[in-house]
Amino acid sequence: MEYHIEKIRYRNGVIEIRYPIHKILFRGRSRYQDILVVESIFGKMLILDGVLQLTTYDEEIYHKALVSPTFKKGFKKILILGGGDGGAAYQLSLIDPDLDIDVVDIDPMVTEVVKKYIPEVYRDVFSLENINLINRDAFEYVREYNGKYDMVLGDLTDYRYEDQIGSDVNILYSIDYLNDVKRILNSDGVVTYHVGGVILDRENVIKIYNIFREVFKYVRIYGVYIPSFLDIWCYISGSDNPIKIGGEPIIYDVSQLLGL
Amino acid sequence: MEYHIEKIRYRNGVIEIRYPIHKILFRGRSRYQDILVVESIFGKMLILDGVLQLTTYDEEIYHKALVSPTFKKGFKKILILGGGDGGAAYQLSLIDPDLDIDVVDIDPMVTEVVKKYIPEVYRDVFSLENINLINRDAFEYVREYNGKYDMVLGDLTDYRYEDQIGSDVNILYSIDYLNDVKRILNSDGVVTYHVGGVILDRENVIKIYNIFREVFKYVRIYGVYIPSFLDIWCYISGSDNPIKIGGEPIIYDVSQLLGL
Asked: Domain segments of chain A: what residues?
């Protein structure tokens, strides 16, 4: 049996989680990263640079929790940083099919691979007229953009422990970058990033929370259990207006997860 | 590096979780089971027959979630099935120090080992006059008991997949046994069992839920995230009166878990 292994630094050790792989559907390397699609016990898995990104089993939980709790009625124009798999844009289109959505993902190969091998997540969402895929570096895009968005969503690969000095990803979690993001945000707008597991990425989550607090007047953190990540996944929202977190808490309603 | 490995059947495969072990504190075999106490990243771990039972890192979350959400004001006399580590009895004593608590655990060696190696969980609770440890088979104890309890808590080792025909543990999850438990329950009383992870023990949880529904007029299921189990742990309550689940949902309050 082949496994996909997640190694997670936690306190003074490393937990390993071994997911059995039933079949490899795609393995390749883009200009930016290793891309792997496998069949496993949570359905299909997309794995980038060895780190699990999404599964067909529960990507809806993940993406809904990213886009909906801080969405405000009246929002029109949304920017998604990352999100080239289409899942976040799709969930937004369910909230309001007329939203103007820009998805800025550096790696077109992720989109191609998801389109071909995980169409149940891709859902052909970028063929819609008001959902635009822009293959650019999210850092440069925000720096050069002169308009305004109502909402900015960080659907990026995780902040990386090991690259403290400045990986291409980590810069998108910096105070400077978030100030740049704030510059292109309407005054009642909100920025929401997914930031990792409450337990398994604890230090990173706290670090990013504190970065948000440096940039925004109001910061909220919320979470939802993502089965395939085996953790309560955290989302951090920043705004200069008070943030209301919508949606129902589900920890006391596991009956839904069990189909009872 | 040595690991404690949890192998969890899930859908059509097995997930392995590998917890690094820093030090073995105790390893032995009682008449009933293998007992292991180790130092790991979640503090000390108690492992019975190769299955993680509790960690010092989060046993309070587990035990509080077992004893408090279905506790009703006015309850006086409580029976704990299993619970020889003292953790559940201790959490009950915090709710009301005058409760009359009987803990029926078959294996005195578990208590001895926890007393010596995990005193921060044991807390010398059985030296209190109104908390009684009874080293007997919980099956026989309930069958032969003639009094009444206000609350019965199942703090047992998990139902076992592989022993479909009748392991010593599985019988305590049977319709016949729960009818016996109901016989010694006051009419407004409640039975609450911990039953496993919402994801990782899904089939068992549903099975036990359905067993409770055969026995009790009202059945509720609730859950709480237990970090060291990497899952939302489920608790099932049965009663012939409507059950109110107390306590606060915590899924939207991860800030507490993060110490923010």
From this structure: 2-55, 59-258
User: Per residue in B7-16, is it b (16+ CB within 10 Å) or e — as a string?
Assistant: ebbbeebbbb
- Rg of chain B taking only CA atoms, in angstroms: 17
Determine the residue of chain B that is closest to A4 in CA distance.
B15
Assign domain A2-55 one CATH number from 3.20.20.150, 3.40.50.300, 2.30.140.10, 1.10.10.60. 2.30.140.10
Rounded to the nearest angstrom, the minimum Cα separation between B145 and chain A is: 33
Least-confidence region, from A7-11, B34-38, B41-45: A7-11
Residues of B in contact with A259 (CB under 8 A): 206
* pLDDT 10s digits, A175-211: 999 999 999 999 999 999 999 888 778 888 889 999 9
Q: In chain B, which residues have their Cβ closer than 8 Å to the Cβ of A254? A: 198, 221-223, 232, 234
Distance in angstroms (rounded) separating the CA atoms of residues A172 and B78: 54
Interface contact B251-A20, CB threshold 8 A: no
Q: Dihedral sign for Cα B52, B55, B58, B61, please.
A: positive
Which chain A residues touch B222 with a CB distance below 8 Å? 252, 254
Of A10, A18, A223, which is closest to B254 when you measure between CB atoms? A223
**Domain B59-258 superfamily per CATH:** Vaccinia Virus protein VP39 (3.40.50.150)
- Do domains A2-55 and A59-258 share one topology? The answer is no
Mean pLDDT of A46-72: 94
Confirm if B24 and B36 have CB atoms less than 8 A apart: yes
Q: A213-256 pLDDT, tens per residue?
A: 999 999 988 888 888 998 888 899 999 999 988 876 655 445 55
CB contact under 8 A, B223 and A252: yes
Higher-confidence residue of A22 and B221: namely A22
Q: A165 in contact with B at a CB cutoff of 8 Å?
A: no
